[in-house]
Amino acid sequence: MGLDLKFDRQIYLGFQAEFVHAEVNRTLGVFQTTPLILTAPVTAGGIRQHLRYDERTASISANKLLSEEWSFGLRYRVTDSALERRIPEVRTALLPDADRRDEALLHEFRVSLLFTHGSGFFVQTEGAWYLQTGYEVNGSPRSRSELDGASFPQVNLMAGYRFPRRRGDISLGLLNATDEDYQLTSLTPYAELPHERVIAVRLRTNF
């Protein structure tokens, strides 16, 4: 679900919300035997596991045309994800992970400044900051523990040329200019980011 608004003074606002829900039942392979009996046979079997995944995402963006050549943009996006894993046939007193819930919250702040010349040449600088927190909930009674989080910036610099009649563009960029490494949990989806300073060349064409 999305909403785009345009105001006077060349201000543009955008809102977007998404929700994802999925449930899966699967069978895990196990070896079964009788405890405390050394001569008891070992047989292969299966045990049922239930998975449930919920993801909620919301974002807001604002863009402002400062002049015919300059534009400024802000964007905030938050993603809240949770994965539940349950094995109904196993008591949590024996295996706490038989009833486990992983939670992660990812914040993304982004700001950009773009200069575009009438000849087609452009320069863009973009700064982003990511903040992720996570929790693990399991056992009975429920035990909640905080997982390792992440907080890091990313700065990208780009210069290029747009072909006439919007037929494409070519650009040269320095991604992750501050050479920041990071560790994000994959529970919250995100666009893959460079783990080190990268020089990128891009060519896009429209037919």
Give a summary of the structure in a few sentences.
This protein has strands at 2-7, 11-32, 43-65, 70-86, 99-116, 121-138, 143-162, 168-175, 198-205. By secondary structure, the protein is mainly β. The protein folds into two domains: 1-26 and 46-117, no CATH class; 145-151 and 162-207, no CATH class.
Describe what you observe in this structure.
By secondary structure, the protein is mainly β. It folds into 2 domains: 1-26 and 46-117, no CATH class; 145-151 and 162-207, no CATH class. Helix content is 0%, strand content 68%. The chain contains no helices and 9 strands. The protein has strands spanning 2-7, 11-32, 43-65, 70-86, 99-116, 121-138, 143-162, 168-175, 198-205. A 9-stranded antiparallel sheet has the order 1-2-3-4-5-6-7-8-9, with no helix packed on it. Strand 1 (2-7) and strand 2 form a beta hairpin. It is elongated and about 85 Å long. It starts with a strand and ends with a strand. The relative contact order is 0.13. The model has no long low-confidence stretch (mean pLDDT 88).
Principal-axes shape call: elongated
Low-confidence segments, given as residue ranges, are none
- Within the largest sheet, what's the order of strands? 1-2-3-4-5-6-7-8-9
Strand content: over 45%
**Topology as a string of helices (H) and strands (E):** EEEEEEEEE
Largest pleated sheet: 9 strands, antiparallel
From the N-terminal CA to the C-terminal CA, the straight-line distance is: 30 Å
- How many domains make up the 3D coordinates? 2
